[in-house]
Amino acid sequence: MPCAGVGTRAGAGQPKQYMPLAGKPLVAHTLAAFAPLAVLSRCIVVLAPDDRAWPLPPGDYELLHRGGDSRAASVRAGLAHLLDTGAAQHDWVMVHDAARCLLRPSDVQALVQACLRDGQGGLLALPLPDTLKQADAQGRVAQTLARSDKWLAQTPQMFRLGALFEALSGDLSGITDEASAMERAGAAPLLVEGAAMNVKVTYPSDFALAEAVLRAQQMTGERT
User: Fold this and answer.
1) How sure is the predictor about 13, in pLDDT bands with cuts at 50, 70 and 90?
2) Which of 105, 126, 140, 183 is most deeply buried (CB count within 10 A of its CB)?
3) How many helices (H) and strands (E) does the chain have?
4) d(C-alpha 190, C-alpha 158), whole Å
5) Domain for residue 3, yes or no?
6) Residue 159 within a domain
């Protein structure tokens, strides 16, 4: 779980993953989505090297202070740590954004089952629901693009550890997620439909949405 960002766009004055949300730090809700899944054996949270603000007590996760200057660099550091501490090249690994705190455990399980059947790896994603416009240099519509084959990438993304580490071992420019690295390496990741609520909390308005959803889940006692 890359967790080394500073959250500039959130306008919070501190890393957004540590902001209070429904009574807990945001990242606590993110980690909670993985707690029910017995299939997972380790959880590595990759922090910035100088991060001393981690807000949670010790738990079923490992803190690694080797985050890089990009998401891809932080993920690569986490993968290297796994390989250095006993994980095998053929083991599966999932990467999830710390800021996606509304993830449902059922969607993680669906991804795991789909990837195990497929063998190549894949990611949660959402079919594009809106009309897609391409802009020109003046900020006007150049054309409307077909949306029938367009998807919005989410996380977790799941691949074989060795293959993903190899895909991230070269130039990281243009790598925006693990799937894009695997695509560059020649793979065709599987798209597994996720949920619209699995948003990445990025802007101040996103916190209000996440707060409302988490409060509703707390009232019903459900997070499926």
Assistant:
1) low
2) 126
3) 6, 10
4) 10
5) no
6) yes
Neighbours of 52 (CB within 10 A): 7
Give pLDDT tens digits for 104-130: 999 999 999 999 999 999 999 999 999
112: helix, strand or coil: helix
Under DSSP, the state recorded for 9 is G
pLDDT digits (tens, 9 = 90+) for 55-83: 999 999 999 999 999 999 999 999 999 99
**Amino acid in the structure at residue 82:** L
What are the tens digits of pLDDT across the range 32-60? 999 999 999 999 999 999 999 999 999 99
* CATH number of the domain that residue 189 is part of: 3.90.550.10
For residue 54, give the 3-state DSSP assignment: coil
Residue 9 clears pLDDT 70, i.e. is over it: no
**Structure tokens of 133?**
């416009």
Backbone φ and ψ of 44, nearest 5°: -110, 120
DSSP sequence for 45-71: EE--TT-----S-S-SSEEE----SSH
- Beta-strand runs (E) in the chain: 20-21, 24-25, 44-46, 62-64, 92-95, 122-127, 132-135, 141-145, 151-160, 190-193
Token reading at 217: 């889940």
Domain extent at residue 175: 8-220
Q: Is the pLDDT of residue 180 over 80?
A: yes
Hey, what amino acid is at 172? L
- Using DSSP bridges, classify how beta strands 151-160 and 92-95 pair: parallel, antiparallel or unpaired: antiparallel
Residues 75, 168: contact at Cβ < 8 Å?
yes
Query: Is 2 inside any structural domain?
Result: no
Q: How many domains does the chain have?
A: 1
